[in-house]
Amino acid sequence: MKRHLLSVTALLCVSLTQxxxxxxxxxxxxxxxxxxxxxxxxxxxxxxxxxxxxxxxxNAVSYYNRGVAKASLKDHRGAVLDYDRAIELNGKDALAYLxxxxxxxxxxxxxxxxxxxxxxxxxxxxxxQTYYNRGLSRSRIDQYSGAxxxxxxxxxxxxxxxxxxxxxxxxxxxxxxxxxxxxxFAKVIELTPKRSQAYAGRGISKTELNDYTGAVADLxxxxxxxxxxxxxxxxxxxxxxxxxDYKGALADYNRAIALKADNYAAYYGRGFCRSKLGDQKxxxxxxxxxxxxxxxxxxxxxVYSGRINRATLDNLRNVVQERNKINELGSExxxxxxxxxxxxxxxxxxxxxxxDLxxxxxxxxxxxxAYFTRGLIRSAQGDQRAAIMDCNSAVKLNPRYAEVxxxxxxxxxxxxxxxxxxxxxxxxxxxxxxxxxxxxxDYCN
Length: 445
Fold this sequence. Notes:
Helix 14 packs antiparallel against helix 15 (246-259). The chain starts with 7 loop residues before the first helix and ends with a helix. It has three domains: 8-125, Tetratricopeptide repeat domain (Serine Threonine Protein Phosphatase 5, Tetratricopeptide repeat); 179-292, Tetratricopeptide repeat domain (Serine Threonine Protein Phosphatase 5, Tetratricopeptide repeat, Alpha Horseshoe); 310-443, Serine Threonine Protein Phosphatase 5, Tetratricopeptide repeat, CATH 1.25.40.10. By secondary structure, it is mainly α. It contains 25 helices and no strands. It has helices spanning 8-11, 24-38, 42-55, 60-72, 76-89, 94-106, 110-123, 128-140, 144-157, 162-174, 178-191, 196-208, 212-225, 230-242, 246-259, 264-276, 280-292, 310-317, 334-346, 350-363, 368-380, 384-397, 402-414, 418-430, 435-443. Helices cover 71% and strands 0% of the residues. This is Tetratricopeptide repeat protein.
């Protein structure tokens, strides 16, 4: 089941109402942001809306559209913060609640999304998209009866939406209404005859209804359209087994296991077929696998518990551009210690570099670049928590130091604090450090 994200064009429709700004330059930046969003330049749009907000911090539409730009860059945590502000300034904007709900659902905060979708429906009860999205979030937290009611309403308002018929069919399966799901899958097949999932869904329902011949026919089509669909191979194997075609079933179970090695049910089915075909040794091996596989992730990560591992962290951190620029040498000579540290680090002597950075910070406790550089070296040496402390000091001294937010974000993420890390990456992007959005796209969704 795919979670839905509105197109930028649809989300930007609120911007058709000309906002009232106190300064003409704010209007210029706002209009530039809208133009850039429509052309797909979301990073440019974000910066333009940020300038409009700086000049007029109380305009809800600017926050909303900046949130849309962030969402388009998959920065949903950052988008929620902008939608929060837009709603604070204009609590009657149904589209802002809908958009915030979408971004919350993208972060698996489906209960929070439900509240937003419900408020959006109160303000605009005739939008099928909101019912559809609320149905998806309800299904994600196993509220299938409520999800079904939402999908029914969405279809009532928009009978031509193929995707809603599909998810309604899946929801009926969750409610064990396999017979009721058949017309929904048939409707999807009628409107989109090349959609493999619809044949697969109908085939699974037919299997549950003991129509094994009909199930094999539908699953044949699903596999023809998508040969890598392991679930369809599994169910076709099951249906063939019910039809006493154990050789055919064996081939399907083999393929299902090849596509998903921890499919313990497929091992059980294959073992059953092997037993029926006289291969008791092979059957026992498969039954052993079916019993032993517990579908758990056995990879142990003690320190680097996030999806950003140590090697990835090193690669992402190394993209940060050096900011060592010549500064006027103060009487305490902290700048000289700092520059010597950078040179020592480049020569591969991090211990000596750290000693110089310590001295630079001792001489000038407000030296943000020295804290950040020390944090980079500490991170490279594996001392991530000390690196975070240095980054904390750097951003406290310079709250607009975008690269520090970026580095702190990837370190937090690597240590398992995905939410804190992604919020830092969002802030880095908002401040103009665009490499953040690639990391957000890969690791924050």
